[in-house]
Amino acid sequence: MGDHDTRPENTVIPTVRWEEPPDGPVLVLLDQTRLPHEEVELRCTDVQALVGAIRSLAVRGAPVLGVAGAYGVALAAARGYDVEDAVDLLANARPTAVNLAYGVERAAAAYRGAGQDEGPAAALAEARAVHAEDAAASTAMAAHGERLLAELVSGGGYRILTHCNTGALVSGGEGTALGVVLATHRSGELRRLWVDETRPLLQGSRLTAYEAARAGMPYTLLADSAAGSLFAAGEVDAVLVGADRIAADGSTANKVGSYPLAVLAHHHQVPFVVVAPTTTVDLETPDGASIEIEQRPGSEVTDLAPTPLGTQAYNPAFDVTPAALITAIVTENGVISPVTADRLAAVCAKRTGV
Ligand SMILES: CSC[C@H]1O[C@H](OP(=O)(O)O)[C@H](O)[C@@H]1O
């Protein structure tokens, strides 16, 4: 089994930070495309730079996209750019994670409601509120998720498989699914974290392994195609993943490769758990077929390994798991299981933010 880093826990990762130097406000991003070997910050002073960072996944992960989008509106307002243009550019930078448009609209509504003079301050205050609410949601989900695992997995010593990256890098706090894993690690209940490398952009091997090492978790990396043999060997007690958009019927879009894990989990009678704040739920999207799946450049696949020139590649960023294959959805307002439209609507109705 793989070794793990033994450095002291240090899970605070400032993914997104607002600064106000003398020459004007800046949104500072930890460039996730440079991790795990380089911790490089991008300093965005205009919306185009932030949109570029979102599209290149320098900043990525549904909840933090909402936070960054809200700060993007505040940046436009503070620097005198056309706010409505900024709203359009930011909200459409990536189509699947509903959190992005949600955060952008929160700050935009605050700006519009405050009038010209107070607009920039109102947009910034709302962005900070979105940021703080996401951090609080992360803490609440960790607690709900830990209690759920105690109910689902007997005997403690959890062996959890996760896909993509869902830790502090994607959150105002300690994350979504990986935030739950971190809580079990702190409680001494984490026996093994299985980390899918998550092709083609390798969020698992680059980012989840980075976060697991920083936290001192017992983790082992695996090729995505090796997950099936772990299930067959009885080495997985639960699968925990994040989400980018949850439709009204509970269908969930998440990083491509999540749906096959749900099918494997169902076949092997292993709990498949989605951890996501209610800002990821879109009750206006009726079902999974209605979720727009981002299609990314084929070069992200063909550049990974030697391929003949001119090779075409199919590269959807996400896939959709039907509610019937999801054991539970963990939100900041509680756990829903089984996953039904009514339960989903009820847990969203408790949302304290806008
Ligand atoms: C819980 S948010 C993280 C979520 O976002 C990731 O997608 P991407 O890396 O393309 O932003 C992936 O779907 C994760 O589950």
Automatic annotation (TrEMBL):
Molecular function via GO: S-methyl-5-thioribose-1-phosphate isomerase activity
Residues marked Transition state stabilizer (site): C164
Pfam families: IF-2B
Keywords per UniProt: Amino-acid biosynthesis, Isomerase, Methionine biosynthesis
Protein's pathway: Amino-acid biosynthesis; L-methionine biosynthesis via salvage pathway; L-methionine from S-methyl-5-thio-alpha-D-ribose 1-phosphate: step 1/6
Top-tier EC class: isomerase
HAMAP family: Salvage_MtnA
Known role: Catalyzes the interconversion of methylthioribose-1-phosphate (MTR-1-P) into methylthioribulose-1-phosphate (MTRu-1-P).
NCBIfam families, per database record: eIF-2B_rel, PRK05720.1, salvage_mtnA
Annotated protein name in UniProt: Methylthioribose-1-phosphate isomerase
Organism of derivation: Actinacidiphila polyblastidii
